[in-house]
């Protein structure tokens, strides 16, 4: 197993492993819960990531399932790590639980594929652009804290082992001015600069491409460095986000992203389009 940074992914991993080991040992939830002197509902919440099992509880579960020695110690240590706090939890006042869960997954990402139809991807936004987006879409007074959290997320682009990002951006994102002309020009210049990073690929989906597979809305795909962590789809709307973990959902969105890339301008032509738009901003 690779070393995990994110306690969210650790919690996801340990929950999956505990459920797998229980089934492998031949216990249903009711029988295992009875042997562990806990309710089936409580065991279910552990396996469904609703609560984090303390290391002592994990050790008891592993003993019941016949897992001992180094194999057990690795999982107990994983359980300890799952109790740690991620940096995003310091923004609990402005990041709802459902988005904190996504950010915890994003922190561990090896690669991200995204499609945006209306706004600049959050990982690419400048401070002024983000401020204007939050002003337009939220009624919160803690906009500056939201901006801080967004900028902190962007560090995954330039960390020691940066995430690989393949972004498809609808041409509307380039033409819908957000903020003042100077602020919007700075945003597009920042986008152009990001394309110089070896781990960032930006493609523009032109209006001339016509209909496409993602006309129902934007999405993000996350792949993790370890095969033990299944990839996810993240969908966002006006009031809530949703993480889809079923393999068939990921495959469907992965296929859609591949089709979007084929319909889009090449990365070089996309950069030329971005620069043309910048030159026309007065």
Which structural class matches the secondary elements?
alpha/beta
Largest sheet: 6 strands, mixed
Strand order of the largest sheet: 3-2-1-4-5-6
- Which regions contain 5 or more consecutive residues with pLDDT less than 50? none
Helicity range: 40-55%
Distance between the termini: 53 Å
- Strand runs, count: 6
Order of helices and strands: HHHHHHEHHEHHEEEEHH
Radius of gyration: 21 Å
Mean of pLDDT: 94
What best-fitting shape do the alpha-carbon axes yield?
Answer: elongated
Q: How many separate helices?
A: 12
Strand content: 5-15%
Structure report:
- The protein starts with 6 loop residues before the first helix and ends with a helix.
- Strands 3-2-1-4-5-6 form a 6-stranded mixed sheet, with helices on both faces.
- By secondary structure, the protein is α/β, with parallel strands linked by helices.
- It is elongated.
- Strand 4 and strand 5 form a beta hairpin.
- Helix 10 (181-194) packs antiparallel against helix 12.
- It contains 12 helices and 6 strands.
SSE topology sketch:
Layout: H1 7-24, H2 29-35, H3 40-47, H4 55-64, H5 69-82, H6 97-106, E1 111-116, H7 127-137, H8 143-153, E2 164-170, H9 171-175, H10 181-194, E3 200-205, E4 219-223, E5 232-236, E6 241-244, H11 247-263, H12 267-279
Parallel strand pairs: 1-2, 2-3
Antiparallel strand pairs: 1-4, 4-5, 5-6
Helix pairs in contact: 1-5, 2-3, 4-5, 7-8, 10-12
């Amino acid at each position: 197993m690779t070393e995990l940074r994110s306690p969210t992914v650790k919690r996801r991993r340990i929950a999956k492993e505990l459920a797998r080991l229980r089934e492998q040992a031949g216990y249903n939830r009711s029988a295992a819960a009875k042997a562990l002197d806990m309710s089936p509902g409580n065991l279910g919440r552990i396996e469904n990531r609703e609560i984090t099992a303390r290391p002592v509880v994990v050790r008891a579960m592993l003993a019941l399932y016949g897992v001992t020695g180094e194999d057990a110690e690795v999982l107990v240590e994983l359980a300890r790590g799952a109790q740690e706090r991620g940096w995003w939890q310091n923004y609990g006042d402005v990041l709802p639980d459902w988005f904190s869960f996504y950010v915890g997954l994003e922190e561990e990402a090896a690669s991200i594929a995204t499609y945006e139809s209306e706004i600049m991807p959050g990982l690419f936004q400048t401070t002024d652009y983000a401020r204007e987006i939050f002003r337009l879409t939220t009624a919160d007074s803690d906009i500056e804290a939201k901006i801080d959290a967004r900028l902190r997320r962007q560090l995954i682009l330039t960390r020691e082992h940066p995430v690989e990002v393949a972004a498809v951006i609808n041409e509307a994102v380039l033409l819908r001015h957000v903020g003042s002309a100077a602020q919007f020009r700075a945003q597009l210049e920042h986008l152009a600069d990001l394309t110089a990073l070896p781990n960032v690929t930006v493609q523009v989906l032109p209006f001339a491409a016509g209909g496409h597979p993602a006309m129902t809305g934007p999405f993000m795909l996350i792949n993790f460095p370890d095969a033990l962590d299944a990839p996810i789809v993240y969908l966002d709307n006006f009031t809530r986000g949703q993480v889809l973990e079923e393999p068939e959902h990921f495959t469907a969105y992965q296929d859609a992203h591949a089709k979007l890339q084929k319909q889009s301008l090449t990365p070089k032509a996309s950069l030329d389009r971005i620069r043309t738009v910048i030159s026309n901003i007065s």
